[in-house]
Amino acid sequence: MLSEKIGSNAGLVWTALQHGELNVKAIKKLTKLNEKDLNLALGWLAREGKVKFGESEGELVIKLT
């Protein structure tokens, strides 16, 4: 099921973010997710209130709440 895949990918992103705030490029590199799967995973985590989005030096950065 698609929702299982999204949840699993959200877990990968969650694990990557436990090391601290990261930009999208760094998360993609650590998780090896393509852009679509990464965006779905970030949406999942955002909907659950588990991540915060910000901007640093013109780049989108994400951190755990």
| Whole-angstrom Rg | 11 Å
Percent of residues in helices: 55-70%
CATH superfamily: Winged helix-like DNA-binding domain superfamily/Winged helix DNA-binding domain
CATH architecture: Orthogonal Bundle
Encode the helix/strand succession as letters.
Answer: HEHHEE
Quick recap:
InterPro entries: DUF2582 (IPR019707), WH-like_DNA-bd_sf (IPR036388). The chain has 65 residues and is of the alpha+beta class. It has helices spanning 2-17, 24-31, 35-47, and strands at 22-23, 51-56, 59-64.
Secondary structure topology:
Layout: H1 2-17, E1 22-23, H2 24-31, H3 35-47, E2 51-56, E3 59-64
Antiparallel strand pairs: 1-3, 2-3
Polypeptide structure, described:
A hairpin with a 2-residue loop joins strand 2 and strand 3. This protein is an alpha+beta fold and 65 residues long. It has a 3-stranded antiparallel beta sheet. The model has no long low-confidence stretch (mean pLDDT 96). It contains 3 helices and 3 strands, in the order H-E-H-H-E-E. 57% of the residues lie in helices and 22% in strands. It starts with a helix and ends with a strand. The longest helix is centred in the N-terminal third of the chain and has 16 residues. The protein has one domain: Arc Repressor Mutant, subunit A (Orthogonal Bundle), CATH 1.10.10.10. It is globular. Helix 1 packs across helix 3. InterPro entries: DUF2582, WH-like_DNA-bd_sf.
Keywords for this entry:
65 residues; alpha+beta; Arc Repressor Mutant, subunit A; three-stranded antiparallel β-sheet; 3 strands; 57% helix; 22% strand; globular; WH-like_DNA-bd_sf; DUF2582
